[in-house]
Automatic annotation (TrEMBL):
Coiled coil: none annotated. GO terms for molecular function: aldehyde dehydrogenase (NAD+) activity. InterPro entries: Epimerase_deHydtase, NAD(P)-bd_dom_sf, NAD(P)-dependent_oxidoreduct. It comes from the Eukaryota. This is NAD-dependent epimerase/dehydratase domain-containing protein. It comes from Neonectria ditissima.
Length: 334
């Protein structure tokens, strides 16, 4: 069997950059070329330093996608951009299906999603742990089904990769900061105070960026080794070492922000309408979407990664210990 060629999208992003940075030391099974989809010449030069081959095409152009998948015999695609959209993914799935027809090789598509759609914000149950290896998860959470259903119909093995609250300095040449922790800082900076948006103490899964990237590596390792792992409606993979309460994260970051004079004091209060208006301005979103970015309850629990050999290095409460470092990093870049 010919060696597998791999395509990674989003290599200049927070997760993608860290994933690419880890590839060099990953000791992966024998494989062909690893391509990175880039937009600019500078990005192309950057990925080459990591031993990757740069390709440039429009991922939303079906003909261009098919041409590059078939011309380069790419049998594995890791999708790390546009988690909420579903316009481009079908192009890659259909192109992979055509490659399978041409070569007889098993083909794989990994879609990066998000934990919000497994939370109360999207109507998921939160009265008990929602395990990522639960065989009933596909029916329980009606999301990502375009990818899963089309991939199954086209004979493509699909995987749904789910980041959560990710923190830590991103590696590689791309974005060094997260999205979720940045939102806390942006809202607080505008409101001059850290506010909570839930009346109880909801929790949310967390993961250091290095641990998150390592799960990408382990999934890729299994694919390149031709080892069967769960896919399709059983192929959800959450990168998380555990959960923390939003309130604890707010308090840890508020302490750091107050020490730096970004906010007036470190006390965390419940957001009233006036506070929500300020937070919304800082986030650049409507007031009714503030909670979507800064709260909610998610009991999604990682089990699948452990079953394929993934182990987190950082425990969940490390995010609280690292809050001051996280705030410093965010203020440096935002």
């Amino acid at each position: 069997m010919s060696q597998r060629n791999v395509l990674i999208t989003g290599a200049s992003g927070y997760l993608g950059g860290t994933f690419v940075d880890q590839l060099a030391d990953a000791s992966l099974p024998s494989h062909g070329n690893i391509f990175a989809l880039v937009r600019t010449a500078s990005q192309a030069q950057a990925v080459k330093k990591y031993g990757l081959d740069a390709v440039t095409f429009d991922p939303y152009d079906e003909a261009a996608v098919e041409q590059h998948i078939l011309d380069h015999n790419i049998s594995v695609v890791f999708w790390l951009i546009d988690a909420l959209g579903s316009a481009a993914q079908p192009h890659f799935i259909k192109a992979l299906s055509k490659l399978k027809q041409k070569t007889g090789q098993t083909v794989h598509f990994l879609h990066t999603s998000g934990a919000k759609i497994f939370s109360d914000l999207a109507g998921a149950y939160t009265d008990k742990p929602l395990l990522d290896d639960d065989p009933n998860l596909y029916e329980a959470v009606d999301t990502n089904n375009i990818v899963i259903d089309l991939a199954e119909a086209e004979g493509v093995r699909s995987y749904i990769f789910v980041p959560c609250i990710v923190y830590g300095k991103g590696r590689g040449f791309g974005n060094p900061v997260s999205i979720q922790t940045v939102a806390i800082v942006k809202a607080a900076r505008e409101a001059k105070k850290v506010y909570k948006v839930d009346t109880d103490r909801p929790t949310w899964p967390v993961s250091h960026v290095d641990d998150t990237a390592t799960l990408y590596i382990e999934i890729l390792r299994k694919i390149l080794a031709e080892e069967d792992i769960d896919y399709g409606s059983n192929g959800y993979y959450l990168a998380s070492s555990g959960s923390v309460a939003w309130d604890d994260l707010y308090e840890a970051m508020a302490k750091s922000l107050a020490q730096r004079g970004i906010i007036e004091d470190s006390q965390v209060s419940f957001a009233d309408n006036a506070a929500l208006a300020k937070m919304a301005k800082g986030l650049g979103c409507p007031e009714d979407l503030v909670r979507v970015q800064l709260g909610g309850k998610c009991t999604f629990t990682a089990k699948h990664g452990q079953s394929i050999g993934w182990k987190s290095r950082y425990p969940a409460d490390h995010i609280l210990e690292a809050a001051d470092e996280e705030v410093a990093l965010i203020l440096e870049h935002v």
